[in-house]
Design goal:
Helix content is 53%, strand content 5%. The chain is built from 14 helices and 5 strands. The strands form 2 sheets. The chain has a 3-stranded mixed sheet, sandwiched between helices. The N and C termini lie far apart (85 Å).
């Protein structure tokens, strides 16, 4: 009976659940709980050739044994060391990409540390110290800070840019444009009708909002995006409370997300092109009738052949017609 009293039930339950989750993850599972790219990034991460999941299984198994024998102080020490390691992983994810499964394990690390700490301090120390003031572990505050940052980054990653026309997943070219940008209107006119191009509007000023509203109405009536953009230049601007309807507020948010995407990519001007894959126009045309000789293959990397690259590529290295903020395009 005395032996049963020594068992740390809370710590034992937490560590067994954590170890089971690690086992479930390391052997694969049929339920995909990951909603971010971090899971693919960290699923094969190892330390000394050992998967992080196997390390988690070992750590939680040791903590479960310590909870079984009632070793609260030693369990708190090991759980604290594990929590320090998890803080390092949270920092790494904050600098790269958050992983949902890793955040679940982070909760188990923090829970096991808290349960062992409460057991080691005793019931009176769970609420206050000898001075009657609340005591909170600095280690837990550090962990909570990085955990909260990762939660925010994961939520941010779920916000995708908004296309004014629903785009297919196979689209490889994205054009971010502003209705008030003359070069943007020219780019939209050239690319209108291409099925492999998606159009993402953003607002450079308040009038762009109403132009995009007008574009949506014209697009729903069957107009092409180039025609809708041209006719939307005469859109009426709303004033007063009508400018803050739920529909307009939602549209402002979508346009702000598109603008944030452009800024995150390191650009602050429109039109902004984004390619998912290698554009076909960058590939030089091959002459199927002639086969290069070995001597010509050996001279492909010579300075004379390198000087002809600009003749092969169809793109001009200079960029024309950029708009930034409220400044007009040159």
């Amino acid at each position: 009976m005395n032996h049963l009293k020594k068992i740390l039930v809370d710590s034992l339950c937490v560590t067994i659940l954590a170890a089971a989750f690690c086992v479930w993850s390391v052997f694969g599972n049929d339920i995909n709980i990951c909603i971010s790219t971090g899971c693919s990034l960290y699923q094969d991460l190892t330390i000394g050739g050992i998967s992080l999941w196997w390390i988690g299984i070992a750590v939680f198994s040791i903590l479960a044994l310590l909870a079984l024998v009632g070793a609260a102080s030693l369990g708190r020490l090991i759980a604290g060391c594990a929590l320090c390691g998890d803080i390092c992983l949270l920092l790494l994810m904050a600098l790269t990409a958050p992983c949902v499964s890793c955040l679940v394990i982070a909760l188990f690390f923090a829970s096991s540390y808290m349960s062992f700490s409460f057991a080691a301090k005793g019931k009176t120390a769970r609420v206050s110290n000898t001075n009657g003031k609340s005591r909170t572990s600095v280690l837990l505050w550090i962990w909570l800070t990085f955990f909260t940052i990762n939660i925010g980054l994961m939520a941010r990653a779920q916000v995708e840019p908004w296309p004014i026309i629903k785009a297919d997943n196979a689209v490889v070219t994205r054009l971010f444009f502003s209705p008030s940008c003359s070069s943007c209107r020219e780019a939209v006119g050239i690319l209108s009708g291409h099925v492999d191009v998606a159009f993402y509007p953003l607002g450079e000023n308040d009038t762009d909002l109403y132009k995009i509203v007008k574009m949506r109405e014209l697009l729903d009536s069957g107009m092409s995006i180039a025609e809708a953009l041209t006719q939307a230049q005469e859109a009426q601007i709303s004033t007063g409370l009508s400018a803050y309807t739920p529909q307009l507020l939602l549209l402002r948010f979508k346009m702000l997300c598109n603008k944030a995407h452009v800024y995150t990519a390191g650009a602050q001007t429109v039109p902004f092109f984004e390619y998912h894959g290698m554009p076909a126009m960058l590939k030089p045309k091959k002459n199927s009738a002639s086969t290069p000789s070995p001597s010509s293959q050996r001279t492909q990397n010579t300075p004379s052949s390198a000087s002809n690259i600009n003749k092969i590529l169809p793109l001009d290295p200079l960029v024309e017609g950029r708009c930034a903020a409220n400044l007009p395009c040159p």
